[in-house]
Amino acid sequence: MEMKNIRNFCIIAHIDHGKSTLADRLLELTQTLSERDMEAQVLDDMDLEREKGITIKSHAIQMRYKGYVLNLIDTPGHVDFSYEVSRSIASCEGALLVVDASQGVQAQTIANLYQAIDHGLEIIPILNKIDMDSAQPDVVADQIIDLIGCKAEDIYRISARTGEGVAPILDAIVEKIPAPEGDPDAPLQALIFDSVFNPFRGVVAYFKVKNGSIRKGQKVKFFNTGMEYDAEEVGILRMKLVPSAEVGCGDVGYIISGIKSAAEVKVGDTITGAENSCKEAIAGFEEVKPMVFAGMYPVQADKFEELRTVLEKFQLNDASFVYEPESSLALGSGFRCGFLGLLHLEIVQERLFREFDMDVITTVPNVSYKVYTTQGEVLDVHNPSGLPAPTLIDRIDEPFIRAQIISKSEFFGPVMKLCLDKRGTLVSQHYITSDRVELNYDMPLSEIVFDFYDKLKSISKGYASFDYHINGYRPAHLVKLDILLNGEPADALSTLIHADNAYEFGRKMCVKLKDLIPRQQFDIPVQAAIGAKIIARETVKQVRKDVTAKCYGGDVTRKRKLLEKQKEGKKRMRQIGKVQVPQSAFMAVLKLD
Fold first, then answer.
1. Quick one: DSSP state of residue 517?
2. How many angstroms separate the CA atoms of 568 and 389, rounded?
3. How do strand 94-100 and strand 6-12 relate by DSSP bridges?
4. Which of 104, 116, 200, 188 shows the shortest CA–CA distance to 145?
5. Where are the extended beta strands (E) located within 424-578?
6. Band of the pLDDT at 50, cuts 50, 70, 90?
7. What does the alpha-carbon distance between residue 113 and residue 96 come to, in Å, rounded to a whole number?
8. Rounded distance, CA 434 to CA 441, Å?
9. Where does residue 319 rank: exposed (0-12), middle (13-18), buried (19+ CB within 10 A)?
10. Which end of the chain is more exposed for a tag (fewer CB within 10 A), N or C?
11. For residue 512, how far is the Cα from the chain centroid?
């Protein structure tokens, strides 16, 4: 296939604006799938994606239309998966910008759009869901015109659900999106944008060829790792992998080269020829920086090595996930894992269980702090147990974000109150339309990690949209809050928290744990402490056996004697009694409200 007949494009939009449905219609119109194989959200092939109705992984698929090859790379919309979007954008020359006609332009739409414009992509604006009763196509079309400066006639008005108005989009892709640029005769240079692990064939890497071409049987080299392999199979991405003799310049395809170890393939690496190699690697994507850290421990201690293997394979499919070994007094050996957000953490945990049958215990999530010591060192602390002694700490800096919230103006007050409660400072506000306002806040990342997004959705009745990017570090008055069970610190429940919120958070934790910890035959004090100072306490009452049941009649001293004996036994038991914290307690701590 000649390069001038290839079009590489992605679909960008906010969550639930109809990306996957539009992809279904395009696949139908180009007859990429037979009617028998067609189903809703056909590219969302994970059970989890179908259940939650969101795209988690980006997917690539090739379509044929009027002698042209169209490579579609479907992208997620949720802010936690923005890394998947950046990888898709780096592999394309054009993007379909989908906006919901009833909800209008949302925060994530703007964030992804700017990313696409920075990469120089050709934007085709599309107004979706025009068949809905609540649709306001003219109002939303004006918002799109303000956003990207196009003309009203450039906007395609469609209903992806019914298929109305979708056919002209295929012609627009061919006419408006430029063909990929590259030199077919230059040394091979291909960018890896995704990879998956196949238990029978090893690692399958997906790539886009920038220069040259890649042939079956060719000896290839991975630029950053320097490893050489034989290309056992190359081909194009249809619904299934379709082998071919060669993948030409500008095209998107896959390579299988018998790689068994997940660590050998880095997303963003460059594939080149072993003999005639290119001079420099393609500038890949920005290094992903995890923002939320949590410990993951196997439920059975002897499954540690198995968990390590599973995480290695998982990381291959999700390049934004990072991990390193750590150990805990309460939970034994495990891994400190980094995530892009709380939804990302939830999805990873669920996928480990479903795809690898791996049950894990997750500790309370933390963000990464910079600790400046009195010796002049700077430490990155992800875990409260890594904090130096209070006498050695000069100051602690916490990460701040610039949050962009777009909401209906009637929810303006409650949204501002929520941001202020989370220690946010208003940077700017402006009205996009008469009833839609955009607020920009600087906020500590630790405040939005737990429940900010859920609260925002509930106070705005689901209308507000939220996007953020990291905005440096600032000094903060933080304290380490320990939870003591029966006088023993439970290190997995320790958190670093702002001093102003410590008392309230500690009290809530104690109340919650009181309900969740199983009762023993002795009283269990549940305490929240800052250093040596106890700031909150609850007691899990003991279970009492009726030792006087067999005493009927007779002297009261007999009963007393038995009760005294029981009391002595309970005292002794309490000294050696161990308190087990169920996994439900760790999860419930995240949902304190």
1. S
2. 38
3. parallel
4. 104
5. 425-433, 436-444, 465-476, 478-485, 488-489, 495-498, 524-530, 533-540
6. very low
7. 10
8. 21
9. buried
10. C
11. 27
3-state secondary structure of 239: coil
Residue range 489-516, pLDDT digits in tens:
877 777 788 888 888 888 988 888 888 8
Question: If you write DSSP's letter for every residue of 95-138 in order, what string do you get?
Answer: EEEEEETTT-S-HHHHHHHHHHHHTTPEEEEEEE-TTSTT--HH
DSSP secondary structure string, 352-371? Answer: HHHHH---EEE---B--EEE
For residues 19-36, average pLDDT: 75
Q: Which residue has the higher pLDDT, 384 or 580?
A: 384
What string of DSSP letters covers 38-66? --TTTT--SHHHHHHTS--S-EEEEEEET
Does domain 292-365 fall under CATH 3.40.50.720? My reply is no
- Residues 6 or more apart whose CB falls under 8 angstroms from that of 486 comprise 524, 525, 574, 577, 579
d(CA 441, CA 425): 5
Tokens 């910890």 -> residue: 517
CATH superfamily label, 3-176: P-loop containing nucleotide triphosphate hydrolases (3.40.50.300)
13-31 CB burial, b ≥16 within 10 A, e <16 = bbbbbbbbbbbbbbbeebe
Question: Was domain 370-476 assigned CATH 3.30.70.240?
Answer: yes
**CA neighbor of 14 nearest in space, from 110, 94, 102:** 110
Q: How many angstroms from the chain centroid is the CA of residue 30?
A: 32
| pLDDT tens digits along 360-416 | 878 777 778 888 888 888 888 877 777 787 788 888 888 888 888 888 788 888 888
Does CATH place domain 480-590 in 3.30.70.2570? yes
Q: CA–CA separation, 95 vs 13, rounded Å?
A: 10
Residue type, 230: D
Calculate the alpha carbon distances from 584 to 384, 449, 513, 538 in Å.
Answer: 21, 19, 10, 18
Domain ranges of the chain: 3-176, 189-273, 292-365, 370-476, 480-590
Residue 74: its pLDDT value, please? Answer: 62
Amino acid in the structure at residue 552: Y
pTM metric for this prediction: 0.63
Domains 3-176 and 189-273 share a fold: no
Structural tokens at position 266: 């880095």
For 187-237, write each residue's pLDDT tens digit: 888 888 777 777 788 888 888 888 888 888 888 888 777 778 888 888 887
Class of domain 189-273: mainly beta
Query: Which has the higher per-residue pLDDT, 485 or 491?
Result: 485
Give the contacts of 301 (CB within 8 A, at least 6 positions apart): 332, 333
Q: Could you tell me the CA-to-CA distances from 436 to 406, 429, 440, 481 in Å, in that order?
A: 7, 11, 14, 40
